[in-house]
Design a protein that fits this description.
heterodimer; A: 311 residues; alpha/beta; Ribulose 1,5 Bisphosphate Carboxylase/Oxygenase; Rossmann fold; 6-stranded antiparallel beta sheet; 4-stranded parallel beta sheet; 32% helix; B: 191 residues; alpha+beta; 2 domains; 5 helices
Chain lengths: 311, 191
């Protein structure tokens, strides 16, 4: 993106006239207000405070500092300070920012800002989107190679199936997969192989806590291929929800599924924990982020969803 | 996430950049597709093409969301830098036979612009001449936003200078104090 300055100089050089297409989004500078705080010593016009008064002031300041507790929740912002966009308008801008890029490699992303505690449990799950974003995931299944589970996992599309040969390959640094699942009976063997130090930091170590140690891996393999994972980090859940080539309808379906899944997960947390989605931002690989207002199409703009479906 | 005000200010400038400026034009409905071919390396006359893509094509895409626009960048910088315009109905004076992939649907004619050694503005001028596109001027509202942003930037620069001066002064005073303390210590050690 070019910097602001050349854009402004171009504008000031240009002749000003009314007209042009309908442009639905203009953020008035009045709402935004000054973003900067100026702190410097003001000129002394006031009469000087006496020594005792100054001492009182200092005492009060110290007390105030003692009272201030560290923040326990993530900071929230007033959304009325900013503009929100309908999905189609955001897509129109994003498609313009991504012009000339490969429609399958550029992804749409969603960020959900949550109202949540800093130290509470986090939302974490995986789901299958109606229109998968990434389809070339390599899944590794740890199961005895001649068992019926191994056969069904291979049929479901697992890239690697086995036990000892996989352990050996991992020890030699050949990790040729993006996800790892373990069959329940092989879990003890996996633990004995002590691969946690290699797989753990990569997030590939199967564990019953994450639901990656299962009785029948083939079902999970099918879920993983075309599935996607998300987790909350610093009060925000981010996930890729579409490729640039998707139509607005496809993208809307994916976003809806994702949001429903996140809401369900938040409901499943314990009663004491209260989480809320406060903002939904759509962005893309190279584009800026657009805060969504939940509408599909802005009634004021003349943009049609089918215009946004071409490559 | 970053504060809303900060995010919006940046977004506002980016959206203004994409709405108005050189390249903002409405193409006539005959234009079916725009394709650009140029090299990744910009040294051998491919610079203008890249600039056109970065600055003009994104505005063109914003104002004509339905027209497919593709860019193919090759490794070979000594190769040609061509822009191919596909028209859905015959227009212009040198209609070439349409390319085979397109001809299955709508009969198209193509015209090419050699972008090699051309500046991006010259490429845009050729494009508007060939397609008879309607060039958009910056409208009043956008001009107002641009002006506001410019004023804000000037204000920011003034504040930045003030702060820099204040910080430099503070640093200087600290250095002087530290030096004086060091001298006192040295005197103490001597005695």
């Amino acid at each position: 993106m070019a910097s602001l300055t050349p854009c402004l100089t171009q504008l000031s050089r240009m002749c000003i006239s009314a007209g042009g297409g309908t442009m639905p989004h203009r953020i008035s500078t009045q709402i935004l207000g000054p973003a900067l705080q100026i702190r410097y010593k003001s000129k002394d016009n006031k009469p000087k405070a006496s020594r005792s008064e100054l001492a009182m002031k200092a005492k009060k300041l110290v007390e105030k500092r003692k009272k201030r507790k560290p923040r326990t929740t993530f900071r929230q912002y007033d959304l009325s300070d900013g503009e929100q966009f309908a999905l189609c308008d955001a897509i129109r801008y994003i498609r313009a920012f991504e012009v000339g890029r490969a429609p399958t490699s550029v992804k749409y992303e969603i960020s959900l800002k949550l109202k949540t505690l800093k130290n509470g449990p986090v939302v974490r799950n995986r789901l299958r989107l109606p229109h998968p974003v990434k389809t070339d995931l390599r899944v590794c299944v740890i199961a005895p190679p001649d068992s019926k589970f191994a056969e069904s996992a291979r049929a479901a599309g697992a890239a690697l199936v086995g036990e000892d040969e996989i352990f050996e390959a991992i020890r030699n640094g050949r990790i040729e997969f993006d996800r790892c699942i373990c069959q329940t009976d092989s879990y003890a063997k996996l633990n004995k192989a002590q691969l946690g130090r290699i797989l753990g930091p990569k997030g590939l170590m199967p564990s019953p806590k994450l639901g990656t140690v299962v009785k029948d891996p083939s079902l999970l393999v099918r879920d993983f291929i075309g599935g996607a994972e998300y987790r909350e980090r610093l009060g925000v859940i981010r996930m890729a929800v579409g490729q640039l080539g998707f139509t607005p309808d496809q993208l809307a379906r994916n976003i809806k599924t994702f949001m429903e899944s996140v809401k369900k997960d938040m409901g499943l947390l314990s009663d004491k924990i209260n989480k809320d989605i406060t903002e939904v931002v759509l962005s893309s690989t190279n584009g800026p982020g657009f805060s969504l207002n939940g509408e599909f199409k802005n009634s004021k703009s003349d943009i049609q969803p089918k215009d946004l479906s071409t490559s | 996430m970053v504060s809303v005000v900060k995010r919006m200010r940046k977004l506002q400038a980016q959206l203004l950049f994409i709405r108005s400026g050189p390249g903002a034009a409405i193409l006539p409905p005959e234009v079916a597709r725009i394709h650009m071919d140029f090299a990744l390396n910009t040294t051998k006359g491919h610079h203008g093409a890249k600039q056109f893509w970065r600055n003009h094509l994104i505005r063109l895409k914003y104002h004509n969301p339905a027209v497919p626009m593709t860019v193919n960048r090759t490794e070979d910088a000594s190769g040609p830098a061509l822009m191919t315009l596909h028209f859905s109905s015959p227009s212009g004076n040198t209609p070439n036979p349409s390319n085979p992939s397109e001809s299955t649907e709508i009969p198209t004619t193509t015209q090419t612009i050699d972008m090699r050694n051309l500046e991006s503005s010259a490429i845009f001028a050729q494009l508007t001449a060939l397609t008879k596109a309607r060039v958009l001027r910056t409208d009043l509202e956008d001009a107002k936003i641009g002006q506001d942003l410019e004023e804000q930037e000037a204000r920011n620069n003034r504040v930045r200078e003030l702060m820099q001066a204040a910080m430099a002064r503070r640093k200087r005073e600290k250095a002087i104090l530290a030096q004086a303390r060091g001298e006192v210590e040295a005197l103490k050690n001597e005695t």
